[in-house]
């Protein structure tokens, strides 16, 4: 079975290091035989999570679209920046809205249930954004997502990529390959994807 993996960054800033890290993950996954869908959260704009708004209008359609996309993949990979040692607000808001989905067309629907994910991070400092991944891991596990142990964190990201977007450092390349391989293996094992 070919594993279907969804990849996105936790930032939509032009030139974001997390976007470049997500691109590197996309290549690593494809080289190991995965069918990869790379998206941008810019295509799924959402209001700030608000239960009054949810009660009045329901879960926003962009959250539903993203939830359906997650459901049609075996797993996903998030490349995240770190904001104040934690999760960037764009990513947290997105995760929260998708977690509010309970039904789709009257049918019970929980996009995260049974899914497996990999986490990557990047920053311009030596900590490589890793502090934010502790919080992201906790949030996703609370949403019933299994998080694989290997992760790839990119320090000094302003110098980490060559002109082709590849990692300059051999150890980073090997780390991303391990993340990709582990995610693919676990996603195949646990696949609960919905066929559309």
From TrEMBL:
InterPro entries, sorted: Flavoprotein-like_sf, FMN_Rdtase-like_dom, NAD(P)H-dep_reductase
Residues covered by the NADPH-dependent FMN reductase-like domain: 4-157
GO molecular function, one term: oxidoreductase activity
Pfam family for this entry, one: FMN_red
SUPFAM superfamilies membership: Flavoproteins (SSF52218)
Gene Ontology cellular component annotations, sorted alphabetically: cytosol
Record protein name field: NAD(P)H-dependent FMN reductase
Native species: Pseudaminobacter salicylatoxidans
